[in-house]
Automatic annotation (TrEMBL):
A Pfam short name: LysR_substrate
Protein name (database record): LysR family transcriptional regulator
Lineage, highest ranks first: Bacteria, Pseudomonadati, Myxococcota, Myxococcia, Myxococcales
Domain (HTH lysR-type): residue spans on this chain: 1-59
Family per record: Belongs to the LysR transcriptional regulatory family.
Organism: Corallococcus llansteffanensis
Length: 307
């Protein structure tokens, strides 16, 4: 038995929660992963996992071994990555998750500069508004908006996105120009509503002006949970909408959207790059983190409300 191979298999099972997901992540048959864990337990003479037909749980001894194994494997990967980077620069695959608008408007257009520096890195970019489990889905890092609720993740603050409230000219012609947030809850106006995928809850408009803060649950005809579809609904005249300035600015400049509720704007939303602390960042992940921090720092208009 290769002790390091068995150790990595055990760590994958713990993080993914199933032998099947661990086998997929390792590119091995499930039977091979099961055999490695059995051999490891026999070698250590201790029960590491409790197995049932539906789930796998870690024993107290298994959790102790897991914590030490993660540290040891991380140190080995760090050493290998450092040597590899010294010889030929970072290489391999990175799995990154980001929303549709950030991927389409910020990350993908800037990737040529990334590949000019690191031509031997391959990025798998998962594009979705869904919040994935970084460990069980084998994701290296993710770009997320809002507070980071999982305190186990390492979070690097990219900035606070500024938002605009807009509507299409067609909407304004039909319904008039709203001037106060409370008008959105009335019968004469409508909003394009967004709902949270994890909770299914429809998110209210939270708007501020000179220290005053209002939360309005507007009357909606359509509720979505994906940012590009949400934007399309606003452009189609289905209601008042809000989105990050960098998303709406080109459409305002082209006359396809107009700002509404003058003086009112949503609260800025923090944006983070997050990654699991259990895995020591290898050379590839480290350079992607640094590049992403540079990219967002070079776009000051992302964080400004006006100008």
């Amino acid at each position: 038995m290769d002790r390091f191979t068995a150790m990595e298999a055990f760590v994958r099972v713990v993080e993914s929660g199933t032998f099947t997901k661990a086998a997929d992540a390792l590119g091995r048959p499930k039977t091979a992963v099961t055999r490695l864990i059995q051999q490891l337990e026999a070698q250590l003479r201790v029960k590491l996992l409790h197995r049932t037909t539906r789930r796998v749980t870690v024993t107290p001894e298994g959790m102790t071994y897991y914590q030490q194994a993660v540290r040891l494997l991380g140190e080995v990967r760090e050493l290998e990555s450092s040597l590899a980077q010294t010889r030929r620069g970072p290489r391999g695959r990175l799995r990154v998750e980001s929303s549709g608008t950030i991927s389409r408007l910020l990350i993908v257009p800037a990737l040529p500069s990334f590949y000019a520096r690191y031509p031997q890195l391959h990025i798998e970019l998962g594009v979705s508004d869904r919040v994935v489990d970084l460990l069980s889905d084998n994701v290296d890092c993710a770009i997320r908006g809002g507070a980071v609720k999982d305190e186990s993740l390492v979070a690097r603050h990219l900035g606070d996105l500024c938002y605009w409230v807009c509507a299409s000219p067609r909407y304004v012609e039909r319904h008039g120009m709203p001037h106060h947030p409370l008008e959105l809850a009335g019968a004469s106006h409508a909003v394009v509503s967004y709902f949270s995928s994890p909770s299914g809850k429809e998110l209210p408009f939270v708007l501020i002006r000179e220290g005053e803060r209002l939360e309005v649950q507007g009357r909606s005809l359509l509720t979505l949970n994906e940012t590009n579809a949400y934007l399309a609904a606003g452009l189609a005249g289905l209601g008042v909408m809000y989105a990050p300035r960098f998303v709406l600015e080109p459409y305002v400049a082209a006359g396809e959207l107009v700002p509404v509720l003058e003086g009112w704007h949503p609260e800025p939303r923090p944006l983070f790059l997050v990654y699991p602390p259990a895995r020591q960042p290898g050379a590839g992940l480290r350079v992607f983190i640094d590049w992403t921090m540079e990219l967002f720092a070079s776009r000051p208009s992302l964080w400004r409300q006006d100008g």
